Amino acid sequence: MTPRQTRQSGRQATPGVSLNRALSKLGLCSRTQAEVLIAEGRVRVGGQVVRNATLRVDLDRDRIVVDDRPVVAERKVYLILNKPRGLVTTRDDPQQRDTVYVCLEGLDLPFVSPVGRLDKASEGLLLFSNDPEWAARIDDPSTGPDKTYHVQVDRIPDAAQLAALKAGFVDDGEFLRAKSATLLRSGERNAWIEIVLDAGRNRQIRRMLEAQDTNVLRLIRVSIGPLALGELAKGAWRPLTEEELRRLT
Known about the structure:
This protein is an alpha+beta fold. The protein is 21% helix and 29% strand. It contains seven helices and 17 strands. Strand 5 and strand 6 form a beta hairpin.
């Protein structure tokens, strides 16, 4: 029995968080990576090895040690990245493709996770943080800020097509709709449209346009709520300012 389990005997479940979530909240690693560390017997709580990732721990009271090093809360980090096309939004890719973390290589940062995702072919504004509560608020489809995209398509959409994007439809059991869809500019064979989402689904914009037999040539996220990508260079990053953080949440 671990110290926490001994304290719980004959009592209701101890408040707190699961051990794998605790390691994530402290900025050490992701919950999935924490589960591996725990299963390998590399994590101790109160001096005893724990192999149960769901064990409840109190971050204010329990001493957590990984590989004989105490785990302490990292400073909170909030970053904005201009994601280049061709990178996948994950830390470890089973197919060995380049990930968005190549843009952060060599930096003196605690463990940070992407806030939401952009698929491999998409580009633009991507946030990173080691603050899971903040990230959850930003990414919450019901309460999080709107996301704005500029999309180049291989046709000139008319008013009816733009209206259909706003009206929405059901695809694979999910209701897909744009909060707004506006023609930005057009050429002879293609156009740029601005699409705003207030509840993004996986590949939502591509799926909506595919349903109209429209191909996406480029897809760029240009803003999240009041935070705009601005002049940030492709592949570059910077910390969010205090004012940006305040306005986002």
